[in-house]
Design goal:
By secondary structure, this protein is of the alpha/beta class. It has one domain: Rossmann fold, CATH 3.40.50.720. Helices cover 41% and strands 14% of the residues. Belongs to the short-chain dehydrogenases/reductases (SDR) family.
Length: 270
């Protein structure tokens, strides 16, 4: 089990206050890492870091905008000042389409009408944000001669969205999965390969974690539609990715880089 230990390692999780982001933080803390809870809301990040410390360890909440290079450099210096190293980076921050007016969701999410500004915003956070965080924090790892970067993608980075799962019991299309999410997550998968090839000789491993959909109070019809397409017959629980994350973060995956670990209940298997 020593292979899975992250004792004395410093791990940064971006988008740390999201549903899966919190579970990533909890898993890393339980494995012994000093966790940097990084999210746009600094006060909430600090509060969650304090919650993690109740179970032991030294954790740090910090507010960051993954699209702001200067802010990331300031965060880097603060983290190094507190912990002395950066060993693990989980690029988890991302935008997934939400429409303020549910009545307009179908119309606005259709490809023919999808706002280009929304597409650009997704590119900025989901792709440029991964690039900048990897550049700013990963360079520290390259200079150290060791480290692990985990880029969180999606099954929709591998296959096109099945729009039929967004139809309700009456067969009405309530929403379309937009082009932005699969386009950006596909970019993340191949960026991983680039960075793994670029930094391999520097001792920095770079892998993708591609999760499936997580059940989170969605409409019952959607949960049923989604579950019917998975080999395990259900959506993921929020903590179903903890084992995969610790594997990729730790020496248990010491000979693994440039890979895409797909954890999706069998969604992409058929």
């Amino acid at each position: 089990m020593e292979l899975f230990s992250l004792k004395n390692k410093t791990a940064i999780v971006t988008g740390a206050l999201g549903l899966i982001g919190k579970k990533h933080c909890e898993a890393l803390a339980k494995a012994g890492a000093n966790v940097v809870v990084a999210d746009i809301n600094e006060s909430q990040a600090e509060a969650f870091a304090a919650v993690l410390e109740k179970d032991g360890g030294s954790h740090y909440g910090i507010g960051i905008d993954v699209t702001n290079e200067e802010a990331l450099k300031i965060a880097r210096d603060k983290i190094l000042g507190k912990f002395g190293s950066i060993d693990i980076l989980v690029n988890n921050a991302a935008i997934n389409d939400m429409f303020e007016n549910p009545a307009m969701a179908k119309e606005l999410s259709a490809f023919e009408n999808y706002p280009v500004d929304a597409f650009k915003k997704s590119l900025d956070v989901n792709v440029t944000g991964v690039f900048l965080c990897s550049q700013v924090f990963g360079t520290v790892m390259a200079d150290q001669g060791k480290g692990s970067i985990i880029n969180v993608a999606s099954t929709y980075g591998l296959v096109g969205p099945d729009q039929s799962i967004y139809r309700n019991e009456q067969g009405e299309q309530t929403f379309f999965k937009s082009a932005a999410y699969p386009a950006t997550k596909g970019a993340v998968v191949n960026f991983t390969r680039f960075l793994a090839a670029y930094w391999g000789k520097k001792g920095v491993r770079v892998n993708t974690l591609s999760p499936g959909g997580v059940e989170n109070s969605q409409d019952e019809y959607f949960v049923q539609n989604y579950s019917a397409k998975t080999l395990l017959g259900r959506m993921a629980n929020a903590d179903d990715y903890q084992g995969a994350l610790i594997f990729l973060s730790s020496d248990a995956s010491a000979y693994m880089t440039g890979a895409n670990l797909v954890v999706d209940g069998g969604w992409t298997a058929i």
